[in-house]
Amino acid sequence: MKALIRNGFGLAAALLMAALVYAADIKVDLSKEQPGKPPVIFEPIVGTWLVAQDRPDKVIALDGRPWVASKDTPTKLLVESARKLYGTSNEELMDNAKQFAYYPVAILKSVDNFSNGTIGMKFKTTGGEADRCSGILFNVKPNGDWLTIRYNDTENNVGLWEFHGGIRRNVRFSDRAKPFMLDRSAWHELKMTVNGADFKAWLDGAVAIEYTFGSEPAAGRKGPPNPDLFPATNPVLRPPVAGKVGLWSKTDSSSYFKDYVVSPQP
Fold this sequence. Notes:
The chain is globular, with a radius of gyration of 20 Å. The strands form 2 sheets. Strands 1, 3, 4, 6, 11, 12, 13 and 15 form an 8-stranded antiparallel β-sheet that branches. A 7-stranded antiparallel β-sheet has the order 2-5-14-7-8-9-10, with helices on one face. It has 5 helices and 15 strands. The protein is α+β, with helices and mostly antiparallel strands and 266 residues long. It has helices at residues 2-23, 65-70, 79-86, 91-95, 97-100, and strands at 26-27, 42-46, 48-54, 57-63, 105-108, 117-127, 133-140, 146-152, 157-164, 167-173, 188-195, 198-203, 206-212, 244-248, 254-264.
């Protein structure tokens, strides 16, 4: 009987812990957002981000068409929005504005710092001539550095990219021999998880990338790796992950996003 009681308490404790973990999920609710206006739950930093209606669902829509008209004036970066998040004295972020402006990003306001856990979202590519990219932004630092895991609909691959010192560089690509040929008219799921130094990403349930933060880069097809890809010289690639999260894209890409969920873990 005592063993049954102990087992019962153990099961109850496990269920309670599972409930607490589940309760900690941060699910982006777009039901109160107004179509045609910028989202309230995300802070658009660069690019044209609006709420749109996709049949029964409200979605976050990135419209890349205005980028074509303004690509020669990247100083149109929304400095005011960036300063809302990081303060008026952060001039390092302002200095990075020229490069940063080529990558539309929107920051999720409800998450101050993501380190361990899972981030998932659904996306649908709707347009783009130069690029057709949809990604999850994470590890966003106060100086504007960041990491992103993204799907590229023109290259049919998944890539982990870092942005450091005003320059973006690839960290890891999915297997080039196994391209992800996705239906552009359908919704797809991109998911990533961080567990200490271990990183993994999935596209529609298939493992796309595995990476260890803090690991030394290997030589590429063009020779030795860039010095910026060595964690010793780049804090963005050193564990632990710690920073804001959000949505990411590139140049004139147009995409829909929904079902954005952050599941933090201790």
